[in-house]
Amino acid sequence: MLSEPILSERRDRVLVMTVNRPEVRNAFDFATADALSNALDELERDDELRVGVLTGAGGHFSAGMDLEAFQRGDVPYVAKRGIFGIVNAPPSKPLIAAVEGGALAGGFELMLACDMVTAAADARFGIPEVKRGLLAAAGALLDLPRRIPPAIAYELALTGEPIAASRAAELGLVNRVTDAGGALDEALRLAGEIAANAPLAVAASKRVLAETLSWDPGERWATQGEIAGPVLTSEDAKEGTRAFLEGRDPEWRGR
To answer: Closest Cα to residue 113, out of 40, 41, 21, 179?
Structure first.
């Protein structure tokens, strides 16, 4: 019996999704992309789940596209969420990548589809596609010039050489660097800090952060107001301020 390509495990209010193809360094074929898309659907629809964590089995994050499968015409593209079952339509809830080993080629782009990253000190990051006659068309070329200095984006894309976790952290691509083997535990700590907050406020904050660069500068305050208004008048807003004044932990209801 074949093992599941994506393993999902609930950890309190966090859904841990593990790419489970260590024999090919967690490379993605269609079945893996489809399974990840389905896991993200579970994260979205379950109100008890507040944060997702994406990691890889066997001490490796992901090598991206399964090139042998690609040669057979098996492409890791799912209509609903696009490349790898995530890149074109990431979840509305926060998603953290926990990186051990390599996040290379499409694996790097898989990481970029997440909102935050924890990484082992010996992890490596890169887009070596030009070394294979390809290009990083699953998001890296689009996103990197907005997230890191353009000259560094050019270097990564045109040389294909990887960088260490420490350098990725310096560039702002990684939030927290851990000892080898500690990326998932650190991701769960970060997820717990997020999950403790008001879900409506977290969702609205993520939406503004994700969309603001595409807004017309003259309309950004009004657009933000449309998103923020329902949060500021919610029951959770009243509960949060009341709990602060009373010196207790809030009890969020998500409304």
So the answer is: 40
List of domains in the chain: 6-195 (3.90.226.10), 199-246 (1.10.12.10)
Known active-site residue 129: yes
CB 45 within 8 A of CB 81: no
Task: Say which DSSP state 77 is in.
Answer: E
Burial grade of 217 (CB within 10 A; 0-12, 13-18, 19 or more): exposed
SS3 200: helix
A 10 A CB-CB count for 212 gives: 12
Q: How far apart are the first and last CA of the chain?
A: 44
**48 is a catalytic site residue:** no
Residues linked to residue 15 through DSSP beta bridges, in sequence order: 10, 52
pLDDT in tens, the chain (255 residues): 468 999 999 999 999 999 999 999 999 999 999 999 999 999 999 999 999 999 999 999 999 999 899 889 999 999 999 999 999 999 999 999 999 999 999 999 999 999 999 999 999 999 999 998 888 999 999 999 999 999 999 999 999 999 999 999 999 999 999 999 999 999 999 999 999 999 999 999 999 999 998 898 899 999 999 999 999 999 999 999 899 998 899 999 888
In 3D space, the residue among 97, 92, 100 whose CA is nearest the CA of residue 124 turns out to be: 100
Identify the sign of the CA torsion 187, 188, 194, 200.
positive
**Which residue in 48, 57, 20 sits closest to 184, CA to CA?**
57
Catalytic residue among 44, 129, 155, 226: 129
Which one of 9, 48, 109, 193 is the catalytic residue? 109
